[in-house]
């Protein structure tokens, strides 16, 4: 090889150039055959483990260049450029002449190479490189086809020999021999590919042949894996090992991983067709039989645990030695055979199904059911439907149970307990699933409204809690109780009915001073109601608190002006109530004791003198009194009683015995109220400051009453409550319902006018829909009542019917 150089020191780096010696080459006619024999021998030696383990890729990297027959070269650029040039020149001639000239930076390897060449260290040419040169020249001289077909033939022969060795392996040695031969084949394939690198890069792409490495895999597939004596045996062995692992035996997972990896390396179709598809079919059969066995002998909870364990085992199996893409497929098989096919039987399983889990608070089993059923189509909807059905049946029994409705507080507490129970189930077992929350809300709304007295009972529950107070309970716990009440309130269709009762009960608590709870607790609930339903819902309730504060200021003014002249008169406390804010109460006449009557007149004069244009009417049925009483042996007590009770007791200052009719005539208290009043004074053990004849629990018109001189109590202050029906009587209930219906009429009319003012023209059905939607936050409007209100508005010229279509209404400005 000739190389040009210049003596000029100023000349810059020149282009790198290596040329082969130019001489005439005469090709021997037997050259292809001879050369192929050399290469065939080399391939045979590789398969027989007689070749060096050094691959040409290492030679090509430049780290071992000095080990070959390089004599002289020119270096002006990089190490990699040198190697490419040397490769080309060497493969054509077998010799390379080098003139050394350093220009620019060189790598350490390059410097070492140059020094060794200059010192004259020549090494014997490595046989491996000779093979590469022979393959290179065959391709260069247009014998690539012979080289390629020879390669196929030679590899096929060696693989058939390997197949015989694998076929003769017995028992557990079969997979080990297959794995060992596969490792050998891969090593051989790597070395063969390195020798035939030039063919792989030039001849194969140009002639659309299969690359050497891929060819080696295909030949392995066709001659080994798809061999008639190997293919079925391989599949059966793999499936048998997996079955043994499923039944608790320990298998060689490393070997399994290698064999499965071999199938994956041979291509997705080989893995899928030769293993995955049969594996899934066998697994389906296995789990079909096992699930049937389990469901016959296990309860629901145990079955779910076994299914969960099997599912986790399959996921673990995939992670250890199967293709990751198989996970979804094998889990789908387990889910179908163990869950989907037995879903209905599991949820309805006698004594252990979903309903029993709910009844017995089996949160762990419920969680397992949820996590497994969510994996299959319609799984969660199946759980949800069964839970909803059970909850509605349970709730319906609860709200229609005649024993439970006798105690409104217990009735509501049962509702809250039921709600707490299912909230816990959804939180602990159902992952706070919103669809289950919605089903729970829907169910409660369904059965709470089956009992028309639910609004009244919820108000009575609140009344009970706030009367007794929540002493010793933290502020957070108070908020929890009130939030639970609000939760039930949201389910009510007739929120305006609740408002009616709540207003009545709040009025009694405020006026009787029987609210033990902090004023903040009362106001907290009103704030929650206001947030839920708007200002209009609570404006009158807030007005009640305003009246109580104003009344305190009024009483201070009264005693400031008249305190001196009142002397030893009884202490009077008056609450002045604004008529529109408080529940409508019938004005009931009652003859107050003379000393109280005079005091009330003084207050009337004071109040009307300071507030012009107002009118006062006394509500004696809503008042209370504190009396000091001395009994037979001189025992003294302070009695806290109602105004009616005070009027009855004060009569005994002037009489030892009075008949029922005498008391009724003297006080003019309505008969029903008087009977409850006397019953609480004479028939309640521990509070019976009066005695009656004849003795009985009920008050008769022929009864007579006298002071119980033997009355004693360990308390100085004795509170005597009036015996009242906690629930309304039937006439009272009808009266409340009538007032509610009357209050709804203007609200329905206002909604109709708002809608028509906005829409101008609307048909009957759409008006019904819009009005119902607008008013649903307060009550569920009756379509019949809406129609009546429309007719009323037409009569008053707010609306008119369309002349052409009588179902259309027009708004009249």
From TrEMBL:
Keywords: Isopeptide bond, Ubl conjugation, Ubl conjugation pathway
Family: Belongs to the cullin family.
UniProt organism field: Escallonia herrerae
Gene Ontology biological-process entries: ubiquitin-dependent protein catabolic process
Claim: Lipoprotein is one of the keywords in the record: no
Domain Cullin family profile: 453-682
Organismal lineage: Eukaryota, Viridiplantae, Streptophyta, Embryophyta, Tracheophyta
GO molecular function terms listed in the Swiss-Prot or TrEMBL record: ubiquitin protein ligase binding
Highest taxon of the lineage: Eukaryota
PANTHER family recorded: CULLIN
InterPro entries per record: Cullin (IPR045093), Cullin-like_AB (IPR059120), Cullin_homology (IPR016158), Cullin_homology_sf (IPR036317), Cullin_N (IPR001373), Cullin_neddylation_domain (IPR019559), Cullin_repeat-like_dom_sf (IPR016159), WH-like_DNA-bd_sf (IPR036388)
Protein's name according to its UniProt entry: Cullin family profile domain-containing protein
Pfam families registered for this protein in UniProt: Cullin (PF00888), Cullin_AB (PF26557), Cullin_Nedd8 (PF10557)
């Amino acid at each position: 090889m000739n190389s040009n150089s210049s003596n000029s020191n100023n000349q810059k780096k020149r282009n790198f150039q290596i040329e082969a010696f130019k001489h005439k080459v005469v090709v021997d006619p037997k050259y292809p055959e001879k050369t192929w024999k050399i290469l065939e021998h080399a391939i045979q030696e590789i398969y027989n483990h007689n070749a060096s383990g050094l691959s040409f890729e290492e030679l090509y990297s430049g780290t071992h260049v000095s080990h070959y027959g390089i004599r002289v070269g020119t270096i002006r650029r990089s190490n990699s450029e040198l190697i490419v040039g040397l490769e080309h020149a060497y493969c054509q001639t077998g010799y390379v002449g080098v003139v050394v000239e350093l220009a620019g930076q060189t790598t350490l390897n390059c410097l070492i190479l140059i020094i060794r060449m200059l010192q004259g260290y020549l090494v014997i040419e490595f046989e491996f490189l000779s093979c590469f040169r022979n393959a290179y020249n065959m391709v260069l001289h247009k014998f690539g086809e012979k080289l390629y077909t020879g390669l196929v033939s030679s590899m096929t022969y060696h693989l058939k020999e390997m197949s015989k060795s694998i076929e003769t392996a017995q028992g557990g040695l079969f997979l080990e021999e297959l794995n060992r031969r596969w490792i050998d084949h891969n090593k051989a394939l790597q070395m063969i590919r390195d020798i035939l690198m030039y063919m792989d890069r030039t001849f194969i792409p140009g002639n659309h042949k299969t690359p050497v490495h891929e060819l080696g895999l295909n030949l392995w597939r066709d001659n080994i894996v798809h061999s008639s004596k190997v293919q079925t045996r391989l599949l059966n062995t793999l499936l048998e090992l997996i079955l043994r692992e499923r039944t608790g035996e320990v298998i060689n997972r490393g070997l399994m991983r290698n064999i499965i990896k071999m199938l994956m390396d041979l291509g997705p179709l080989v893995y899928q067709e030769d293993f995955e598809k049969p594996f899934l079919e066998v697994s389906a059969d296995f789990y079909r039989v096992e699930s049937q066995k389990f469901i016959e002998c296990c309860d629901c909870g145990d079955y779910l645990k076994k299914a969960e364990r099997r599912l986790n085992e399959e996921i673990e199996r995939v992670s250890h030695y199967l293709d990751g893409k198989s996970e979804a497929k094998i889990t789908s098989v387990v889910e179908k055979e163990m869950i989907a096919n037995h879903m209905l039987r599991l949820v309805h399983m006698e004594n252990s199904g979903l309903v029993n889990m709910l009844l017995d608070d089996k949160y762990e089993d419920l969680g397992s059911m949820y996590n497994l059923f969510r994996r299959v189509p319609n799984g969660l909807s199946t759980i949800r439907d069964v839970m909803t059905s059970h909850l509605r049946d349970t709730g319906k029994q609860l709200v229609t149970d005649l024993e439970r409705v006798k105690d409104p507080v217990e009735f509501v507490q049962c509702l809250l307990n039921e709600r707490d129970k299912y909230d816990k189930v959804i939180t602990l077992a159902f992952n706070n699933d919103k669809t289950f929350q919605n089903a729970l809300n829907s169910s409660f709304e369904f059965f709470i409204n089956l009992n028309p007295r639910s609004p009244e009972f919820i108000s009575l529950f609140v009344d009970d809690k706030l009367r007794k107070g929540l002493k010793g309970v933290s502020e957070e716990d108070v908020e929890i109780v009130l939030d639970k009440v609000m939760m039930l309130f949201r389910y009510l269709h007739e929120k305006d009915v609740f408002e009616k009762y709540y207003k009545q009960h709040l009025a009694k608590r405020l006026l009787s001073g029987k609210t033990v709870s902090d004023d903040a607790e009362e106001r907290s609930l009103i704030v929650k109601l206001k947030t839920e339903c708007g200002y209009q819902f609570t404006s009158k309730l807030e007005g009640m608190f305003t009246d109580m504060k104003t009344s305190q200021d009024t009483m201070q003014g009264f005693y400031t002006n008249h305190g001196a002249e009142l002397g030893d008169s009884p202490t009077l406390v008056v609450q002045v109530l604004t008529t529109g804010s408080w529940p409508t109460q019938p004005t009931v006449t009652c003859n107050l004791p003379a000393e109280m009557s005079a005091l009330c007149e003084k207050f009337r004069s004071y109040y009307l003198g300071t507030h012009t244009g107002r009118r006062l009417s006394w509500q004696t049925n809503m008042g209370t009194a504190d009396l000091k009483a001395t009994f037979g042996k001189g025992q003294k007590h302070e009695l806290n009683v109602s105004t009616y009770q005070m009027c009855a007791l004060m009569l005994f200052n002037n009489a030892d015995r009075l008949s029922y009719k005498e008391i009724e005539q003297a006080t003019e208290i309505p008969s029903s109220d008087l009977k409850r009043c006397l019953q609480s004074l004479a028939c309640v053990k521990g509070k019976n400051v009066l005695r009656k004849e004849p003795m009985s629990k009920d008050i008769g018109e022929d009864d007579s009453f006298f002071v119980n001189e033997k009355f004693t109590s360990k308390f100085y202050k004795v509170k005597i409550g009036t015996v009242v029906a906690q629930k309304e009587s039937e006439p009272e209930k009808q009266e409340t319902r009538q007032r509610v219906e009357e209050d709804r009429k203007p609200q329905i009319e206002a909604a109709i006018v708002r809608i028509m003012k906005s829409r101008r023209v609307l048909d009957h059905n759409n008006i019904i829909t819009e009005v119902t939607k607008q008013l649903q936050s307060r009550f569920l409007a009756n379509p019949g009542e809406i129609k009546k209100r429309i007719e009323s508005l037409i009569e008053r010229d707010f609306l008119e019917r369309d002349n052409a279509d009588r179902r259309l209404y027009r708004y009249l400005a």
